[in-house]
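Thread: Newbie trying to understand structure tokens

Hi all, I'm a second-year student working on a class project, and my supervisor (Dr. K.) asked me to get a predicted structure for one chain before our next meeting. I've only ever worked with sequences, so writing a 3D structure as a token string is new to me. If someone could post the tokens and maybe explain what I'm looking at, I'd be very grateful. Here's the chain:
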Amino acid sequence: MLFLALCDTHGIPAPAVNTLVDGHEVDFFWRARRLVVETDGHEDHGTRAAFERDRAKDARLTVAGYRVVRFTHRQVTREPADVAATVLALLGDAR
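---
Reply by user tm_fold:
Sure, no problem. This is what the structure looks like when written as tokens:
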């Protein structure tokens, strides 16, 4: 997976992958920081229905006390340093 390689390259601790969080499957999860990262490719998330589902899931997880951040395939592949800096900042914030 591209995002896991990005984590490895930038020294980001390995997340749980495709795991359930409050009944929702999420792409990547750091339990200790209550951080969820979703990586969205246009193929799977490019429809109106998917867009609506994703936002509803984000809202439910946020209300439950999780931070949810989404990155596009383009961001992961073309802006990996920016993506990594964002994730590292969120992991470093003890909230």
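A couple of things are worth pointing out once you decode it. The longest strand covers residues 24-30. The mean pLDDT is 92. Feel free to ask follow-ups in this thread.
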